[in-house]
């Protein structure tokens, strides 16, 4: 269950190894919708998809800005963005 005022930017890895960036307030529900072919035309033809990355924001605007910015990146820059976020995530997890 997500908390109120949780807005997420997320990145999926599709079966063809492409990325799909999106916005939601409920990550698991949205992931299920994608895998059922009910979320977007792009992912519908690239199933199955898996959740690669997500970021939580306090406002819809912030999450949608993150989505837009990600979608403007080249594939190489998207890879760099994701590698940097995963490295930060691994570091934070190790300190817990």
Mean pLDDT: 88
For the record, the CATH class is Alpha Beta
What are the low-pLDDT stretches, counting only 5+ consecutive residues below 50?
91-96
What is the percent of helical residues? 40-55%
The shape, in one word, is globular
Give the number of DSSP strands.
3
- How many independent structural domains? 1
The name of the CATH architecture is 3-Layer(aba) Sandwich
Largest sheet: 3 strands, antiparallel
Under CATH, the topology can be stated as GIY-YIG endonuclease
CATH superfamily placement: GIY-YIG endonuclease
Class from secondary-structure proportions: alpha+beta
Strand content: 15-25%
Spatially, the strands of the biggest sheet line up as 2-1-3
Please state the CA-atom Rg, rounded to the nearest Å: 13 Å
Could you tell me how far the N terminus lies from the C terminus, measured between alpha carbons in angstroms? 22 Å
> How many H/I helical runs?
4
Task: Give the H and E element order.
Answer: EEHHEHH
């Amino acid at each position: 269950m997500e908390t109120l005022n949780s807005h997420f930017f997320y990145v999926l890895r599709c079966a063809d190894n492409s990325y799909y960036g999106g916005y939601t307030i409920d990550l698991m529900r949205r992931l299920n919708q994608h895998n059922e072919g009910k979320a977007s035309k792009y992912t519908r033809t690239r199933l199955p998809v898996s959740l690669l990355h997500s970021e939580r924001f306090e406002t819809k605007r912030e999450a949608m800005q993150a989505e837009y910015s990600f979608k403007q990146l080249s594939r190489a820059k998207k890879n760099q963005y994701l590698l940097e976020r995963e490295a930060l995530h691994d570091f934070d997890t190790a300190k817990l």
